[in-house]
Amino acid sequence: MVINEMKPEHTSDWFDFFDNRAFADHGDWKGCYCTGPFTPRMKEYENTSRKRREYATWLVKKGIMRGYLALEHGKVVGWCNVSDKSAFSKLKDVQTDEENVIAITCFMIQKEYRGKGIAQKILDKIIEDAKINRKKLIEAYPRRNAKTVFGNFHGPYSMYEKNGFKLEKVRGVEVVRLYL
């Protein structure tokens, strides 16, 4: 298992994951391409999966969408959408005065690889890189009472708790934070 930061040259592997494996057991989400945190979207990218795919391509090429890939034998089996908090327009309502904040908005692990610690390995890499890059804070938005894998798409609350993240309310929204 290798965890790599996503780069534009990984785009085709990332799309292969989203198009063929990420949502094999949840067709309703197929075609999301993790664009949700970047809303409001440009009008021309609002509806169809094809347009969302084009929007995701644009986000990656511009360096706006970033994250980490979990690769097994060179094939993407997991993804985490994580970047500077300011990159996620959807989070503007939970912005703080803090600078150098990393936000984790989504984890997606291929069905056959779930429960094998891949999300934890990705989180370890996020924490390691955040420290190297002198970030002050990592935050995420898990649902404490999620009942399904897909309800845990922000990452399971228990994983964050185990890694020292503390629950806080920011403008009425529950977030978990790890101060570095």
Overall description:
The chain is of the alpha+beta class. It has one domain (2-179): Gcn5-related N-acetyltransferase (GNAT) (Aminopeptidase, 3-Layer(aba) Sandwich), CATH 3.40.630.30. Helices cover 24% and strands 25% of the residues. Strands 1-2-3-4-5-7-6 form a seven-stranded mixed sheet, sandwiched between helices.
Précis, in short:
With 180 residues, the chain is an alpha+beta fold.
Element pattern in H and E = EHHEEEHEHEE
Q: Regarding CATH, which class?
A: Alpha Beta
> Radius of gyration from the CA trace?
15 Å
Question: In DSSP terms, counting alpha (H) and pi (I) runs of 4 or more, how many helices?
Answer: 4
Measured between the Cα atoms of the first and last residue, the distance is 26 Å
Largest sheet: 7 strands, mixed
Provide the domain count.
1
The CATH homologous superfamily:
Gcn5-related N-acetyltransferase (GNAT)
Secondary structure class reads alpha+beta
CATH fold-level assignment:
Aminopeptidase
Number of strands: 7
Shape: globular
The CATH architecture classification is 3-Layer(aba) Sandwich
What is the mean predicted local confidence, pLDDT? 86
What percent of the residues sit in helical stretches (DSSP H or I)?
A: 10-25%
**Range of strand content:** 25-35%
> Which residues sit in consecutive blocks of at least 5 with pLDDT less than 50?
none
